[in-house]
Amino acid sequence: MKRVYCLIGCLLILLTAAHCAADEKLPTAEELFAQNPAPDVPLTCDPRMDPLLVLVNKEVGLPSAYIPELTDLNLPHKPGVATQQMRPVTAEALGRLFKAAEADGIKLGVVSGYRSYGTQKSIHAKKVAQRGKATAELTSAPPGKSEHQLGLAVDVSCASINYRLNAIFSKTEEGQWVEEHCAEYGFIIRYRAEWQRVTGYKVEPWHIRYVGPEHARLVTSLNIPYEIYMDYLKLCWDSRPHLPVSGSTAQP
Ligand SMILES: [Zn+2]
To answer: Could you read off the pLDDT of 166-186 as tens digits, one per residue?
Structure first.
């Protein structure tokens, strides 16, 4: 019995240590700013106001009436799924990403692009009914809180896993290609397992968000959640001499 308690104790210590290690790995925005207050990325306006950088998460939402400019994604997609749409800049970048993947022998498929407030509302309600609110919200954003409403996020998968949106995507060669190359085309992997404390979501290797190549490369090399990156950019912007922004409200 003593042995069992000892074993449980050791396990708890190990788990706590692993948890702390994951937490410790994340630098704060202040630490990043102290290390590099002027990163080599385009920062032409307050990042909170930049339509391509705007942060959407469980705390920061979009109005129900917000609809971005959209264009059809003329790209391979999951069989049975209707043609998806995204913002033109993202559609173009995703097209280049798919083309580069194909040149490397990698075939990706679009599963879900832009989603309206109304679509997100019904998806979310269904998941809450199936799993309960707390569990559902680890994988499904409430309406107004989804990056898909921005038209800048897309879910991609591949035939070998029947285009499922599952963590196993990261083990496929298609998922590994996306992980390795998506930043070159301006996309970041938004939700990683070790960032759940910050993002509020479980790992989603299939969900990529467009922020432009320069920012995507920096976020990826810093290996930090976008929340911390935006806090870091705000510090960089605020430290610059500029005229104050009056009556500022987020205009994604
Ligand atoms: Zn997604």
So the answer is: 999 999 999 999 999 999 999
What is the domain count for the chain?
1
Rounded CA-CA distance 92/74 in Å is: 10
202 CA to middle of ligand 1, Å? 11
CA 237 – CA 252 distance, rounded (Å): 18
Question: For residue 205, how far is its CA from the centre of ligand 1 (angstroms)?
Answer: 9
Answer yes or no: is 74 within a domain.
yes
Instruction: Say what the pTM is.
Output: 0.86
Q: Domain range for residue 77?
A: 42-238
CA of 56 from ligand 1 middle (Å) equals: 12
Which CATH number goes with the domain that contains 228? 3.30.1380.10
Residue 92 located in a structural domain: yes
Query: 213 alpha carbon to ligand 1 midpoint, in Å?
Result: 19
CB 46 within 8 A of CB 248: yes
